[in-house]
């Protein structure tokens, strides 16, 4: 940068030694003009001194020129070195440099930059022309970002897609800063752009992997509930079968009892609907993609999970106590993911109590208002609790006390709650057992 | 002489309970449904009623197996058929060992269920008949005089009239008379019948005359 500034100074005013020489000659000429008047007299009286001063003067001139030239050359060298280094750096980073002259609406790009955007080599572009090279969906947001940065004199930073000549998409990250005149009006915007395609792809892959992990954890949870699955579906099926078998017998009677048969068919329809609901609920839990954010009543969600766990609770000879606060405001969230968290916490609580046969065998789930902006859910068991020094550790991935456990349930649960703008933490109940709490912001207050 | 047998049903799922009740009625039996084991224990009268019990294993609070144990403890001999949504082999073995007639899974085969009900009711009938017989026998035994009881014990032990007379310190003729009266009171015609009856009643005799112990 210094070299460039130095270059500017020399470049514009004193360009080269030749200019110095010209000045010197001019000066010398002036002096010689003066000297003419003097020399005539001096030469007569002091011929050698005059010769000496002419030679000395000439020598000085040459010296000055040489020094100036050397300085200029060394500056030039530094400049060239600096440019070379920057060129290498820019090339290595895949950076493209650009400069938008706002007044004249002309955008300048380095060759690298042109190839990044797919702009042909020798075309000149206006701002609007430049925007056309962006993906249509990203044009408005990029324009907004640029205008904001110029208006606030803040760093401009934006990511957008560029459509290549072959129609292929590339992700670009652009950064820059504005230059202003003394009245604060933006004169230029200049900065760098770089190819972000591989990073974006890696991000998207990571996101897919996270989803796959969460899905796998969900399926694992459901696998644990497989006996529940069989039971939940079996009951309505058995009822339907019994009704149909009875119906067949009633039909064989003479005369057949039509009233009884009608009642039987009504019940069959109802039981079939019930079975369908069970399948629907379970299907929802198995889905891989994320459901869209919706307004949710957390109490209703908890009641739904209680239904899912009903037969598992009976099989394990445990019960569930619900203490749900009334009139809680809605939260915004993905019902499938939140149900997953609840299921996981409740199954964990049940496992903790299974392992200790002498404790009370019931779960308590409570909800309450937590301050003006949030709600809190607590799942309490009557198991042995968590050692106080491990209250944070249980949320780390691959930490599990079960022989065939993944250890991902709580880690994933925490990331789900965090993504909802909330928090998940554990504590020990003073009267025994562990309590898992999660807090969520209510609709419109702080969810991301 | 006894009331018509009732098939008692216990299941916590209301639709299953309703459909079972319908099916049992359609099969021609009386059905009495209960929503929980506790409900059943509370309503079941002290005198045991004829019939059988169809029971789900997985019930809240008091499980099916626990109910079976409770009934045995109270000496209720109601035969039990288990019906379950998810049973495993150890569970079924436990149930059968505890005396259940059968262990069926949901959804059931209609003829399997019918056959299990018939079997259970037959078992109940048999048990009741046997009990009635024994009760009658004991009634009749109670009408014997002490002397007659002694004679009975020794006859059942296989002793001849002469020996009995010697053992009891009386004459053979008296023994014959006592024997006749015993057989009359107990309504048997032949000696082997008498011996069998004595066995049923659990009468045996120790070597000392005059002592008899109920086995």
How widely separated are the two ends of chain B? 30 Å
Q: Regarding quaternary structure, how should these chains be classified?
A: heterodimer
Question: On the 0-100 scale, what is the average pLDDT of chain B?
Answer: 84
Q: Reading side by side through the largest sheet of chain B, how are the strands ordered?
A: 2-1-3-4-5
As residue ranges, the low-confidence spans of chain B are none
Shape of chain A: elongated
- Number of helical regions of chain A: 12
Q: H/E series of chain A, N to C? A: HHHEEHHHEEEHHHEHEEHEEHEE
Strand % of chain A is: 15-25%
Helix content of chain B: 40-55%
- Largest sheet geometry of chain A: 5 strands, antiparallel
Q: How many strand elements of chain B?
A: 7
Strand tally of chain A is 12
Over the alpha carbons, how many angstroms does the gyration radius of chain A reach? Answer: 41 Å
Characterise the protein shown here.
The complex is a heterodimer of chains A (448) and B (215). Helix content of chain A is 56%, strand content 19%. With 448 residues, chain A is α+β, with helices and mostly antiparallel strands. In chain A, β4 and β5 (186-195) form a beta hairpin. In chain A, α1 (2-12) crosses α3 and α2 runs antiparallel to α3 (47-93). Chain B is α/β, with parallel strands linked by helices and 215 residues long. Chain B is built from 9 helices and 7 strands, in the order βαβαβαβαβαααααββ. Chain B is elongated, with a radius of gyration of 24 Å. Classes of the chains: A alpha+beta (448), B alpha/beta (215). At the A-B interface, α8, α9 and α10 of A face α1 of B.
């Amino acid at each position: 940068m210094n070299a460039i500034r130095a270059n500017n100074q020399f470049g514009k005013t004193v360009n080269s030694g030749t200019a110095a020489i010209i000045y010197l000659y001019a000066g010398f000429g002036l002096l010689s003009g003066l000297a003419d008047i003097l020399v005539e007299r001096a030469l007569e009286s002091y011929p050698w001194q005059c010769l000496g001063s002419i030679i000395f003067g000439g020598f000085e001139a040459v010296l000055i020129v040489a020094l100036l030239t050397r300085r200029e050359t060394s500056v030039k060298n530094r400049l060239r070195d600096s440019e070379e280094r920057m060129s290498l750096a820019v090339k290595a980073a895949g950076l493209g440099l650009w400069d938008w002259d706002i007044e004249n609406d002309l955008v300048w790009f380095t060759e690298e930059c042109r190839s990044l955007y797919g702009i042909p080599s020798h075309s000149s572009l206006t701002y609007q022309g430049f925007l056309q090279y962006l993906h249509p969906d990203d044009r408005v947001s990029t324009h907004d970002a640029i205008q904001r940065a110029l208006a606030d004199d803040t760093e401009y930073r934006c990511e957008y897609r560029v459509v290549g000549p072959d129609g292929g998409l590339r992700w670009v990250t652009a950064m820059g800063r504005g230059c202003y005149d003394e009245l604060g009006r933006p004169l230029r915007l200049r900065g760098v752009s770089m190819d972000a395609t591989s990073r974006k792809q890696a991000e998207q892959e990571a996101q897919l992997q996270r989803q796959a992990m969460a899905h796998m954890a969900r399926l694992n949870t459901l696998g644990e509930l497989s006996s529940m699955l069989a039971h939940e579906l079996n009951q309505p099926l058995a009822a339907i079968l019994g009704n149909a078998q009875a119906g067949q017998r009633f039909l064989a009677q003479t005369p057949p009892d039509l009233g009884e048969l009608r009642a039987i068919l009504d019940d069959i329809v109802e039981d079939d609907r019930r079975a369908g609901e069970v399948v629907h609920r379970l299907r929802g839990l198995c889905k891989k993609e994320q459901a869209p954010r919706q307004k949710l009543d957390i109490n209703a969600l908890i009641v739904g999970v209680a239904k899912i766990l009903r037969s598992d609770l009976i099989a394990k000879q445990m019960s569930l106590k619900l203490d749900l606060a009334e009139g809680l405001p809605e939260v915004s969230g993905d019902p499938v993911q939140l149900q997953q968290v609840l299921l996981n916490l409740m199954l964990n609580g049940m496992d903790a109590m299974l392992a200790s046969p002498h404790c009370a065998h019931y779960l308590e789930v409570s909800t309450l208002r937590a301050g003006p902006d949030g709600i809190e859910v607590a799942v309490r068991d009557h198991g042995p609790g968590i050692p106080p020094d491990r209250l944070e550790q249980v949320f780390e991935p691959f930490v599990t006390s079960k022989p065939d456990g993944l250890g991902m349930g709580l880690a994933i649960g925490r990331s789900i709650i965090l993504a909802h703008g909330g928090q998940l933490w554990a504590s020990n109940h003073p009267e025994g057992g562990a309590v898992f709490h999660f807090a969520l912001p209510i609709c419109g207050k702080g969810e991301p | 002489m006894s009331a018509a047998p009732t098939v008692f049903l216990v299941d916590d799922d209301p639709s299953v309970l309703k459909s079972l009740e319908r099916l049992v009625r359609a099969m021609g039996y009386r059905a009495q449904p209960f929503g929980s084991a506790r409900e059943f224990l509370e309503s079941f009268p002290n005198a045991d009623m004829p019939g059988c019990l169809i029971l789900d294993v997985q019930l809240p609070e008091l499980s099916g197996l626990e109910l079976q144990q409770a009934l045995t403890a109270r000496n209720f001999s109601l035969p039990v058929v288990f019906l379950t949504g998810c049973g495993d082999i150890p569970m079924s073995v436990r149930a059968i060992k505890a005396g259940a007639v059968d262990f069926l899974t949901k959804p059931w085969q209609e003829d399997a269920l019918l056959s299990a009900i018939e079997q259970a009711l037959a078992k109940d009938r048999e048990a009741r008949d046997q009990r009635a017989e024994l009760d009658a026998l004991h009634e009749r035994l109670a009408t014997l005089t002490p002397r007659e009881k002694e004679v009975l014990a020794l006859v059942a032990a296989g002793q001849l009239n002469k020996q009995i007379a010697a053992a009891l310190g009386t004459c053979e003729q008296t023994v014959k008379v006592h024997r006749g009266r015993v057989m009359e009171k107990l309504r048997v015609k032949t000696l082997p019948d008498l011996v069998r009856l004595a066995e049923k009643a659990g009468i045996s005799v120790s070597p000392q005359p005059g002592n008899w112990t109920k086995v």
